[in-house]
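Researcher: For the record, we're logging two predictions in this thread. I'll number them. Prediction 1 follows.
Model: Prediction 1, sequence and structure:
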Amino acid sequence: MEAQEQPLNQERETRSKQEPEKKRKKSNGTKNEKFKWWQTLLILILTLVISVGACYYVSQKYFWSKYDNNRLAEQLDSAKAVADAKPNDPKSHVNLGYAYFLNGDNDEAITQYKMAMDLDKNYFDAYFNLGLVYNKENRLNDSVKMAQKATEISPKDYKGFLLKGMSYRKLKMYKDAIEALNEANKLMPANTDIIYEVGRVAEDQGDKKNAEQIYKDALSYDPLYKPALEGLERVAKK
């Protein structure tokens, strides 16, 4: 599904520029922090129009994939066979770990990802995938460590920064989360996963209005993007 180019939301940017200097100076620390990340969001929205082809790699492959049980079992059996045939190939262990992950067996997934790391200390996919499992299990410090390693190995791959932003958000380190997501956005503009995570930061900070708008921005690129639809439902109930 291709993204459709949308007009920029100029109204919010204009209001920010016209805000009296005195009022900005009187703002407390919390408001300043929110303003800083909202500035980052404006940069993010500006870059969205640069790219018309949104990438859904993370959401489709890792977070919200839909498989029936039969396909999951077949995928696991196939991945096991490949790993048995290629025991020294880190990719085969990452694929097997992912198959375990989809089947809900996080312990085996972790084992396979660590085996891949033992085979190749600089294998990006192993660190990234292991970080995703840690993030899902709320082992957030471990998730940040894996994300940091992933960004060191491949600083031009947006997924490591996205994972870092997700983990920082859960740790309530919102400034760090936005900085990481901004880096991800520079590498992969028009990515709905990144937009959604910025919305989650706004939502977690209690900024219902901006969270709602950000989720709508994500849906303007993919009207069927389930996480943003669920985000709108959440903020509507708050």
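Researcher: Logged. Prediction 2.
Model: Prediction 2, sequence and structure:
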Amino acid sequence: MALYATIIEQIDSAVALVDSGRSTGVEAILRSCLEAHVDLLNLASNPAYADQMQAHYHQQFRIVCREAITGTNPFLAGIEADAPARLAEHEKELARLGKPLDTKTRFDMAGMGDIYRSIYNSLCCETHNNMRALMDRHFTNQGTDEIPIFQIAIFTDMEKVDFDAAIDTFLSILTGSNRTVHHYLGSDQLEKLEVYAQRRAEMPVATPVTASVPAEQPPSHK
């Protein structure tokens, strides 16, 4: 339910940016939202997936505790004293749970490997301010391909095809997550949700370099 709530909140944040005419952060939010959707699908399909989510939790805290033990990071001074005990507990849990899955494996498990190797790659570039994203976002060629004259640009809108693809992907995540959660809980609201799924399916789909996330069927679960 926390994953589902996160997806709803993040999509709401993206809507707020869109409404305010600020599109730069939309794709960074979309990346996080897509990851939450992948975890939601995997968890609904296999409750044991919670173990690997716990493993990620302990792995990240292990990194923090190791840094705190050095006694050189002023931002971790508050946990320096009990960092060794905390580290031992996180190490113990990681030994029990095993190595957490990498992002590619998580996408593959959700049947979204193609999305990982296309859409997700682009979203990561936007999130990490990769040179590809910086060039696309902030440089415009006022000259020609033969004689380029680049100018810096700030607060420019996303290209329409990229914007449409991002919004369509948010819609796909929302409708897919709705289906997953209500199917998992045996809700009696599935028919009502299908109205929204059908409405999304009838909308024109943008055709960017990377297509949007398809609306998936509810996962099987026990």
